[in-house]
Write a structure and sequence with these properties.
- The complex is a heterodimer of chains A (about 110) and B (about 110).
- With about 110 residues, chain A is an all-beta fold.
- Helix content of chain A is about 0%, strand content about 50%.
- In chain A, strand 7 and strand 8 form a beta hairpin.
- Chain A is globular, with a radius of gyration of 13 Å.
- Chain B is an all-beta fold.
- In chain B, the strands form 2 sheets. In chain B, strands 2, 4, 5, 9, 10 and 11 form a 6-stranded mixed β-sheet that branches. In chain B, strands 1-3-8-7-6 form a 5-stranded antiparallel β-sheet, with no helix packed on it.
- Chain B is built from no helices and 11 strands.
- Classes of the chains: A mainly beta (about 110), B mainly beta (about 110).
- Chains A and B meet through strand 4, strand 5 and strand 10 of A and strand 5, strand 9 and strand 10 of B.
Amino acid sequence: GAGVSQTPSNKVTEKGKYVELRCDPISGHTALYWYRQSLGQGPEFLIYFQGTGAADDSGLPNDRFFAVRPEGSVSTLKIQRTERGDSAVYLCASSSRGRGDTQYFGPGTRLTVL
Amino acid sequence: TQLLEQSPQFLSIQEGENLTVYCNSSSVFSSLQWYRQEPGEGPVLLVTVVTGGEVKKLKRLTFQFGDARKDSSLHITAAQPGDTGLYLCAGALGAQKLVFGQGTRLTINP
């Protein structure tokens, strides 16, 4: 069966540009998570969706970061006015219902801001 | 400040040796998970421990959750080159948010 997929696998952009990162969760999973992993660090929580709504967005670093999940399946992480410090691997995970269920991670999108 | 501290951050040993990786925190977690991550891939769950003092075994890997549910350890017996990878511990805050340690990069030399 298909796991979590993320596109693109790599994204290089220039400082100040806008980027969108896409996540396709496992079919039927209602919970979706975004994490950011900087070089040499563990993943850092960004936002959690239950269905279409953001149940917890406490990890978003500032208002340049925004995520949507309009139909309760695919999610898009949007970063405005990118900065060099935004360079990292952005990981998406999904779980069956949330509430402590196992999170299955995608391979991530490596974002490089020049 | 890292909520979960892993030690050591890097470990390189010979095939056949035993090793222990530690994951410590001042916070109490409802559960603690161990993941393994390969280059270019996302973390893959190895085990979840829930009860203080719990011990789980997965072949040559033994996972222990501290009595106070603040710390955990991963012990590998007779390490093999296939065990090489990044090992991450993660604590569950509430029902959904995971807080990760910085990881232990393990290299097993043939």
